[in-house]
Amino acid sequence: DGGITQSPKYLFRKEGQNVTLSCEQNLNHDAMYWYRQDPGQGLRLIYYSQIVNDFQKGDIAEGYSVSREKKESFPLTVTSAQKNPTAFYLCASSIEVAGNTGELFFGEGSRLTVL
Amino acid sequence: GDSVTQMEGPVTLSEEAFLTINCTYTATGYPSLFWYVQYPGEGLQLLLKATKADDKGSNKGFEATYRKETTSFHLEKGSVQVSDSAVYFCALSEYSNTGKLIFGQGTTLQVKP
Which residue in B92, B95, B101 is closest to A104 by CB distance? Predict the structure, then answer.
């Protein structure tokens, strides 16, 4: 089945450690996104990528890094510089980049907890 | 900048009650509008969308009408079920070529039998 796969589903990290969240899609979508979800705050955009080997900062990029070496993969690294990393992270993709149809397809999320 | 505001939750209803979740937006240009639903422990799924003024999006008994004059996109359902319990997000697409969505804060709906 086509879709977006995020792993791991749950992750625990000690303070000072970097962690990488995986996001893979087999929908042949050009654009991919990382959102962070906190209770009562909705979703906030961390990074997005419209094409391979290119990505842009979103609204809360500080303390995060990404790469887009392949069309189907968009991993997110939460670095030790991220001051409050405990959150639910959602990866998404969309078929269209231009225009404003804006329909996103989401993975099931990764919950990161810092101990 | 563009923004979306949803009514505060949680909203608690009895089964078969009428549902309204308010959503208003601020945007330049003419964005598309969306409602997404998130069931417990899962990612978001598109529920319905409308791409221009006066369009009505509908799916699974839910409806929302794009009202440009009141900058609103309220979600309604005539008779909710326990299985509708979830978090509902209103969103708009930026009028640009990024495909980015701007989300409201989400409204939790709990339906009791």
Answer: B101
pLDDT tens, position by position, B53-112? 999 999 999 999 999 999 999 999 999 999 999 999 999 987 665 667 889 999 999 999
Q: Omega before B10 cis (within 30°)?
A: yes
- CB distance from B55 to chain A under 8 Å? no
Q: B101 touching A, CB under 8 A? A: yes
Whole-angstrom distance, CA of residue A47 vs CA of residue A66: 7
B97:A97 CB<8 A: yes
Alpha carbons within 13 angstroms on the beta-carbon side of residue A8 total 8
What is the tens place of the pLDDT at every residue in A56-112? 999 999 999 999 999 999 999 999 888 899 999 999 998 866 545 668 899 999 999
Query: In angstroms, rounded to a whole number, what is the distance separating the alpha carbons of residues B43 and A104?
Result: 11
